[in-house]
Amino acid sequence: MGIASGVGHFFQSIIELIQGFLATIVHFFQLIVNSILGVFQVFVNFVEGTLGFAIHNFFILGTVAAAVFAYLLYAQRQGTTPVSRTIKNKSS
User: Fold this and answer.
1) Residues whose CB falls within 8 Å of the CB of residue 75, separated by 6 or more in sequence, listed in order
2) Rounded Cα gap, residues 92 and 46, in angstroms
3) Residue 38's CB: how many other CB atoms inside 10 A?
4) 79 contacts 88 by C-beta, under 8 angstroms
5) What is d(CA 50, CA 59) in angstroms, rounded to the nearest whole number?
6) Model pTM?
7) Which pLDDT tens digit goes with each residue over 23-60?
8) Is the separation of the CB atoms in 89 and 82 below 8 Å?
């Protein structure tokens, strides 16, 4: 029984060794896939954050531009801007 048991353990060790190699290969490919997915997720989060920042700034800058434009129109109608004074002086 000693030799048969030894041979059985030997083949069992070889099967476990092959299973270990296969598990290593599977884990390696899982690591590659997870790394690619992780990079893609980071890229998507970066684009989302950048676009959100740009959109928020667009509305803030648009509001400031609208306020400046409204002030310039108001000032021109009142005749207090240099451009409106020049136009009034030329027409007089």
Assistant:
1) 81, 84
2) 59
3) 10
4) yes
5) 14
6) 0.52
7) 999 999 999 999 999 999 999 999 999 998 888 898 89
8) no
